[in-house]
Amino acid sequence: MRGPCPVPSRGGDGFGPRAIRGKVFAVTSPGQQLELLAAAQGRLNALAPLLTPLADDFAASGHELYLVGGSVRDALLGARVSDMDFSTDARPETVRRILTRRARAVWDTGIEFGTISAAIPVPRSAAPSLDDDAQPQPEWQVEITTYRADSYDGVTRNPTVTFGDTLEGDLVRRDFTVNAMAVRLLPGGGTEFCDPIGGMDALAEKIIDTPSSPEVSFGDDPLRMLRAARFVSQLRFDLAPRVRESMREMAEQIDRITVERVRTELDKLMLGADPVAGINVLVETGLAERVMPEIPGMQLERDEHMQHKDVYWHSLTVLQQAIDLEDEGPDLVLRWAALLHDIGKPDTRAPKPGGGVTFHHHEVVGAKMARKRMRALKYPKAMIEDVSGLIFLHLRFHGYGDGAWTDSAVRRYVNDAGDLLPRLHKLVRADCTTRNKRRANRLQRNYDSLEQRIAEIAEAEDLARVRPDLDGNDIMEILGVPPGPVVGKAWKYLKELRLDRGPLDPDEARAELKAWWENQQGGN
Q1: How does pLDDT run across 287-340, given as a tens digit for each residue?
Q2: If exposure means fewest CB atoms within 10 Å of the residue's CB, which of 57, 289, 355, 500 is most exposed?
Q3: Phi first, then psi: what are they for 61, rounded to 5°?
Q4: Which CDD domains match (predicted)?
Q5: Do 307 and 199 share a structural domain?
């Protein structure tokens, strides 16, 4: 990969200090640059079957083509390049015409923003050249956007779209410097790295900064403040001091953003490599107070064991420990439940005789609070029920003691958890944050014991799906009743009996049902 790119360089050979719009960037050493560029070249080589023909087509039409944004950032980091975003000086109609030569399908749903999307088949000859991370697939999804020089009204985040004439003008309007780099794609397969804004320096220093002043950038699009916190989580980068300060001063501007977009950014943050750091950014800057105030609200309370600075830090610890227990990749439901499991504590705090405090029923209150907040953010119903269900159940285990539960209690624990049981196991274990090693070991041993009992009972019974020993048809036949409320009541009674006593043989189940029915008749 050649460099620097032939756009206004402002920096000689590209290795010296660069002052752009009043910002002085630290020097990235030649060795660092070469290492980053080598990583990027390796990733781009795997994509040559896509990039080279596209570059040839655009050059043949007299236009430039650049790979831009997160694609370049990820390539420099040696990560898999998944978002295939391009910029060009060609206008949208021209882009559409060029793409039709190779694409299986072309979409112009984003044409009002200058974006044309396409699905381009992977040549059969290309598959052997793709490494594992390139993920061979039937086709590539690409988005190509005409250079833009947008303006904003300061009320919404929707820009007044204006097409630009230069790559630098297009890059400077982007959210962060690490996303404002480009790779010029030359005909024949050549590439040139383009970095007029100083993105490589920010990448090497692991800093999130804005191309223009953060006040202007966040004023144009307040969602970028949430994106900044999200990149702290995803990339494990830190915020530039001026970015952090602007987020504090402008936090209320996030109210301009729709809850759907807020929710999407929050989920991406939670699925990142370090969501604890991302959440802490939201709290420190005041953004969390605007989008999910229950989280900073936990800072006001200490937990009942008095072992952590406050419930907030305890919850971040639980979140991290839950992440450490994940065995099949990031689990969004588990992560949200871990973070929010104690949000009911501030509302349930009460003094204890002789000193200290209690938080009785905080799991019940917390589940309701989580439901309310997630509904406001328009989460899917299933996810709301899963997260709130885990919060509601997370304290149930503490009644287990040293194996004191009956088999009936174990069955009810499994039945009430249902499909959430594997996550509940992780959440309960993650919730052990005491510094008292003896107590921590006892809690873990007790949960080991509970899991062992669940396994033993499951060997003898179908714990995964506890149902009455008689079905609805059996109930109607035995009692001589038609379909109706009586059948439902009988079914519930038999299920409770099943949970209490385990499986019954058919004759015993019939006898119990008849005895129940006689009692019901006598009560009438």
Answers
A1: 999 999 999 999 865 545 544 458 999 999 999 999 999 999 999 999 999 999
A2: 355
A3: -95, 5
A4: HDc, NT_ClassII-CCAase
A5: no
CA angle (183 as vertex; 182, 186 as ends), nearest 5: 145
Same-domain pairing of 190 and 58: yes
Q: What is the pLDDT of residues 330-366, one digit of tens each?
A: 999 999 999 999 999 998 888 878 777 888 899 999 9
Parent domain of 356: 295-464
Helices (DSSP H) in 271-310: which residue ranges? 275-285, 287-291, 294-297
Higher-pLDDT residue of 285, 168? 285
Residues 27 and 159 reside in one and the same domain? yes
Give the H or E element holding residue 224.
helix 223-235
Strand partners, 23: 20
Of the candidates 418, 436, 464, which is a domain's last residue? 464
pTM: 0.81
Distance CA 309, CA 241 (A): 25
DSSP H helices, 286-406, are: 287-291, 294-297, 311-325, 332-340, 345-348, 362-376, 381-393
Q: What is the largest CA-CA distance in the chain?
A: 98
**Number of domains the chain is built from:** 4
* Residues 277, 307 share a domain: no
| 6 found inside a domain | no
Provide the CATH number for the domain around residue 172.
3.30.460.10
Determine the 3-state secondary structure of 2 from DSSP: strand
Is residue 180 located within the same domain as residue 34? yes
For helices 472-479 and 506-523, the axis angle rounded to 10 degrees is: 60
Q: Is 5 a domain residue?
A: no
Provide the 10 A C-beta neighbour count for residue 219.
16
Report the chain's terminal Cα–Cα distance, integer Å: 87
* Residue at 11 is within a domain: no
* Residue 384 CB contacts under 8 Å (≥ 6 apart), including other chains: 370, 371, 374, 375
Residue 138, Cβ density class (10 Å: 0-12 exposed, 13-18 middle, ≥19 buried): exposed
